[in-house]
Design brief:
heterotrimer; A: 543 residues; alpha+beta; Ubiquitin-like (UB roll); Alpha-Beta Plaits; Rossmann fold; seven-stranded mixed sheet; B: 413 residues; mainly alpha; two-stranded antiparallel ribbon; 65% helix; 1% strand
């Protein structure tokens, strides 16, 4: 308990809170500028941008005494009765001087710098810097230095905040980056022969407050102010990192981590970060087609769906394979549609790609071996309808023991995935409907070929490995000819209006106990289904 | 073999329609040139003889305009009332053309007896129409139907407002128009337009000078009826896009535009016939009013005199467009109902009184009395004008009132 | 804004005197103005009969005609693909694809630089926004083309406009005596 006064405004502290001045100021929408401080890294207080005046209020007399020296706000923990001043002339002068110092040798090549527009140095200079330049050092071009396969360093743009160095030491634990030389000559570099080559390397470009560290994939691709940001969830593995999709005119340019303390904190891995390339792959299938005899004809979606519906209604036994790339809502709609046609339709879970082992970094950030975002959610939906879990590996046995008239196979993986023996089993089914982004042996043999959407085009929710459900909206429109799965199922079920993930989730959460916690609107960081479930269920109930 | 009269009528109708359409096309060119001149420009001067380099001061422009209009996309919006939408331009053009049946374009031309037409041909499609005036006003009132139909059938706010404005304006100005004519009818004692011209020649003074007040009332009303600036509120572009013909394109729009020009030509004809002595010139230059025989030269001279007068009035119409700003709508209505209507009534009453007084004097009183009456008419006109100036019926303060409490003002704003 | 806002100054129309109310002087004034202009139209019209007569464009430094992309001393495109012009463009007619430059002393250059001359409104914002004086509007006014595609100028075409016009019109910074930013 305690009270802190910041610029005349009283802020109550909660019990046991340890906040520094920057965090406290953020509570009252007072943004203290800083370069070196990052909430996920240790404090070094080296940039001196966050200098503030602090003082003490005497509880008896009410007198305020201010300390003569400015202190770094990032390093100073607040305590009861503390007074913080961020608007005095001393603080303003100090900020202006730090800005001027940083800009002494910073090349003013903002026009060609990729960070321009989201650069701390730019923003703080406009806000706190001097109006004119007093130094006679002319702007120059920055030297470039390769850090690794993913990151390049513009040496002279660096402000020596050492965020990247601390990141490789504390978060990835790989220690590639360091400071060479001393004093005014110090520079960032990697140890000779040890390039920046860990799977979290892309994060150093995100945390770099200036344009020094740049992502090679993104370099000169797009100016940041053209891009629109969309909240999304990474579909790379079952960690389900919260991300931003940055797109311009329906084209993704980069993915960036979105802060989510429950899942990924501030980071994401390179696999996920660069895992959007398949979205704009030339090879993606974009025309819905129908097979008649041995030839395929291109067909519009609405007659296709009508024909598909009629064909399935004639079939007696129906099986549906729910891909773990589908959202919970989509899986639910498809399963429900299958059950309206055949009330004993087989609902199975699709292929779950697993690569290697879980990879855990020093900070605890883990890249899962399970390379799909929603195995848990889809499994819960499938077992709710089926009563038991029919996995991908169980499918050949089920197909052998029973004859099915029709099978609906969903994919959506960013790579080739269908094993040959499985494909050979599937092509024997009279009516095979395959919904996928890329062609495969089964797709080639399908009666109906339905081009499917990528993660950025979907709307719905994923459940990650730890039962955390995150909802998201589509970030880009699918290419011409492609319909996102949810919209297709919505039309087949003849539901009113347009596909709306939230409405499906409300129904679903009422129907399937596991998803009960998602009945309320899901916050951007998601809801923990497990915790809510334990609270909602009487002890001993099976989930 | 039809009778010579029927052939003559067919020829007259053909000449009339052909002539009017050509005239309308060339008046569009004239209008554009006048507009250009008043704006320090040159105007369309490039299109000349097709397939040659002869520019002929842009005289080929009407042809190009016509081809352009006809080859444009004939677009009918989906939301219109189709039968009415098509009917509107046709009705307005048909009415505008039909009016000219009773309008004389000169006096008459002598023809050989052998043609079987008597010794002369009247330069009017339907000669000796005793109710010519009534016919003209009955048909020109049909124009408002075309406008209202167009506005209504277009099913569009701007068109509808244009149509509404138009109907209110035309109905309001029919009154002063009629009152202006009544004075002339009173003086001439006939509704036959040819007879009115002859009456002016007999009196030796054009009615524009004999009845100045009537002329002003009629002239202003004629401008308003023709929908010309400063009275073109039905289609003022700044407020209503195109008014009642916003939704029209290609040929149908052309019909509307031609009809507008025909209205202007008709208004010019009426002004000339009723107030400027038709084919006559002062000092007997054009012969006696009731001359039974005319030489061919004199017949053509009368035709040219009348055409020249009409041309001058039309040029005045065009100059007026660039000289004075458009009236606000409330001013327009106030002008019709608060100014022109009382002035028209005053004109009629004063003329009736003067003629009644003169009729009681034996033998009409001679030229001295006639000059006295002329003077009296000018005095009445001046007095009425002064009275209007003092009464200021057009001045209206449309600003929000500030003497009532402020939130009510805001609701007005 | 409320009608009793103190910032509003309410003014009254000037009262017309008798002559004004009679309308006749105004009537005559209107006609007189019309005739004055008609006289001017005949003696000294503002119209320029273009193909026969060349227009007077005034100061070529501030005339806004066809764009060009300037070259630097070594003949390379001066543009650094910073997208400032594309950002400033109100008509969205500039499309740039940036890339790493093939030259050691330059970081970024435009791989492709196209201007849709038909979409352009010739406002000069691109020229104003350019930090390296790479894009400029020349005083060429007679720009024509036979197709829409022809009027989409690519980098080579824009550079060729520079080659054609550089002798009559050196870069604007040179003409104004300002050192060009490097």
């Amino acid at each position: 308990m305690g009270t802190v006064i910041i610029d005349g405004q009283e802020v109550e502290l909660k019990d046991g809170e340890r906040l520094n001045c920057i965090q406290l100021a953020a509570r009252v929408q007072n943004d203290i500028p800083r370069y070196c401080w990052h909430p996920g890294l240790t404090v070094v207080a080296s940039c001196r941008m966050c200098l503030v005046q602090i003082g003490k209020k005497d509880p008896k007399t009410g007198e305020i005494s201010i300390t003569p020296k400015l202190v770094p706000g990032c390093q100073t923990l607040v305590s009861d009765g503390m007074v913080i001043v961020t608007t005095s002339d001393e603080v303003k002068n100090s900020r202006a001087m730090v800005e001027e110092d940083l800009l002494l040798r910073h090349p003013v090549d903002c026009p060609i710098c990729d960070k321009a527009g989201e650069c701390y140095l730019q923003d703080y200079h406009f806000q706190y810097g001097r109006d004119e330049r007093r130094a006679d050092i002319k702007p120059f071009t920055s030297r470039r230095r390769e850090m690794g396969d993913t990151i390049t360093l513009f040496v002279d743009r660096c402000v020596m905040c050492t965020r990247c160095v601390r990141f490789t030491r504390e978060i990835s634990g790989t220690n590639e980056m360091m400071i060479i030389d001393r004093g005014a000559r110090d520079e960032i570099d990697v140890f000779p022969g040890f390039p920046l080559a860990n799977k979290l390397s892309g994060n150093v470009a995100d945390i770099c407050p200036v344009g020094a560290l740049c992502d090679k994939e993104f370099l000169y691709e797009q100016r940041v102010w053209y891009m629109k940001s969309h909240d999304n969830v990474c579909a790379g593995c079952s960690t389900g990192c919260s991300i931003f999709v940055h797109e311009n005119q329906e084209r993704i340019y980069r993915l960036m981590p979105r802060e989510n303390q429950q899942i990924n904190q501030w980071w994401m891995c390179d696999d996920g970060r660069y895992g959007w390339k398949h979205v704009h792959d030339e090879q993606r299938v974009t025309t819905p087609r129908k097979r008649e005899g041995d030839t395929y004809t291109n067909i519009e979606w609405s007659p296709l769906l009508a024909g598909l519906d009629a064909t399935l209604k004639n079939a007696k036994r129906l099986a549906v394979v729910l891909s773990p790339m589908l959202t919970v809502e989509e899986a639910y709609l498809l399963a429900k549609y299958a059950r309206t046609i055949d009330e004993h339709a087989l609902i199975a879970v699709g292929y779950v790609p697993v690569e290697g082992e879980d990879e855990t970094f020093k900070s605890g950030f883990t890249i899962r071996a399970e390379k799909c975002p929603n195995r848990l959610g889809v499994s819960k939906v499938a077992s709710h309808f089926q009563g038991e879990l029919v996995a991908w590996s169980d499918l050949p046995a089920r197909l052998a023991s029973e004859t099915f008239d029709a099978l609906w196979l969903t994919g959506g993986y960013g790579h080739a995935w269908l094993a040959d023996d499985m494909a050979a089993t599937l092509v024997n089914i009279p009516t095979l409907i395959v919904q996928d982004m890329f062609t495969s042996a089964a797709y080639e043999a399908a009666t109906y070929q339905l081009p499917g959407a990528s993660f950025a085009e979907r709307e719905g929710s994923y459940v990650n490995h730890a039962d955390r459900l995150q909802s998201f909206q589509w970030a880009i429109r699918p290419p011409q000819g492609v319909q996102p799965e949810g919209r297709v199922y919505w039309q087949l079920l003849k539901l009113p209006g347009l596909y709306n993930g939230r409405r499906v989730m409300e129904d679903l959460a009422r129907e399937i106990v596991y998803f009960a916690a998602a009945q309320q609107p899901v916050p951007p960081t998601g809801v923990d289904l497990k915790v809510n479930l334990l609270a909602a269920q009487p002890a001993g109930a099976t989930v | 073999m039809p009778s010579p009269e029927i052939i003559l009528t067919i020829v007259k109708v053909a000449l009339m329609i052909g002539g009017l359409m050509t005239a309308a096309a060339y008046f569009v060119l004239l209008e554009r040139r006048v507009a250009a001149w008043t704006q320090d420009r040159i105007g369309p001067n490039r299109v000349g003889m097709p397939l040659t380099n002869w520019r002929l001061w842009g005289l080929g422009q009407p042809l190009a305009d016509g081809v352009k209009f006809i080859t444009k996309e004939e677009y009918t919006p989906a939301h219109v009332d189709k039968p009415l939408f098509i009917l509107a331009p046709i009705s307005i053009l048909v009415a505008a053309l039909a009016v000219f049946a009773a309008v004389p374009v000169g006096s008459y031309l002598p023809v050989p007896e052998s043609w079987g037409l008597g010794d002369k041909v009247d330069l009017v499609v339907a000669p000796h129409m005793d109710v010519g005036m009534l016919y003209v006003f009955a048909l020109s009132s049909v124009a408002v139907y075309g406008v209202v139909l167009g506005g209504w059938a277009s099913n569009n706010k701007y068109s509808f407002i244009g149509g509404l404005r138009s109907s209110a304006q035309l109905v309001a100005y029919e009154l002063p128009l009629g009152l202006g004519i009544l004075g002339v009818v009173l003086a001439a004692g006939s509704l036959d337009l040819e007879e009115i011209i002859r009456a002016q020649v007999r009196d030796g003074v054009w009615y524009a000078f004999a009845q100045p007040l009537g002329f002003i009332v009629f002239g202003v009303a004629a401008f308003a009826e023709a929908g010309r600036l400063p009275f073109d509120l039905p289609e003022c572009e700044q407020e209503l896009v195109g008014g009642y013909h916003t939704e029209y394109s290609s040929l149908k729009l052309l019909l509307f535009l031609v009809a507008e020009f025909l209205h202007m030509i008709l208004a010019s004809f009426l002004i000339v016939i009723l107030f400027f002595g038709g084919w006559s010139l002062p000092f007997g230059l054009t012969g006696a009013a009731d001359a039974e025989q005319l030489s061919l030269a004199m017949g053509i001279f009368r035709l040219l005199v009348m055409s020249g007068k009409v041309f001058l009035v039309i040029v005045f119409f065009m100059l007026a467009r660039w000289s004075w700003p458009r009236f606000r709508y409330d001013q327009l209505m106030a002008l019709a109902l608060k100014v022109m209507l009382p002035l028209g009534i005053l004109n009629l009453v004063s003329l009736a009184v003067f003629y009644e007084l003169r009729a009681n004097i034996t033998g009409g009183g001679g030229w001295g009395y006639e000059m006295l009456q002329l003077l009296a008419c000018w005095v009445v006109c001046g007095a009425a004008w002064l009275a209007v100036a003092y009464a200021r019926p057009l001045v209206a303060d449309n600003r929000p009132r500030r003497d009532i409490n402020s939130y009510r003002i805001d609701s007005q704003v | 804004m409320r009608s009793d806002d103190p910032n509003i100054t309410w003014i009254k129309e000037p009262e017309l005197r008798l002559a004004g109310r009679m309308y006749l002087p105004l009537f005559a004034e209107g006609l007189a103005t019309t005739f004055r202009h008609m006289a001017k139209a005949i003696t000294n019209p503002v119209t320029v009969s273009y193909p026969e007569e060349e227009p007077d464009i005034g100061n070529p430094l501030i005339y806004r005609g066809v764009h060009r992309l300037n070259r630097d001393e070594q003949g390379r495109v001066r543009c650094v693909a910073c997208f400032m012009c594309a950002t400033a463009c109100p008509a969205y007619c500039i499309d740039i694809i940036g890339a790493e430059s093939p030259w050691p002393d330059r970081e970024k250059y435009p791989e492709s630089f196209t201007i849709d001359e038909l979409r352009c409104i010739y406002c000069g914002m691109c020229e104003e926004a350019c930090p390296v004086d790479a894009i400029e509007l020349t005083s060429l006014y007679n720009l024509t083309g036979r197709s829409r595609e022809e009027m989409i100028f690519d980098k080579e075409k824009l550079l060729s406009v520079y080659d054609v016009t550089k002798d009559q019109e050196p870069t604007k910074s040179t003409r104004m005596g300002v050192k060009a930013p490097s």
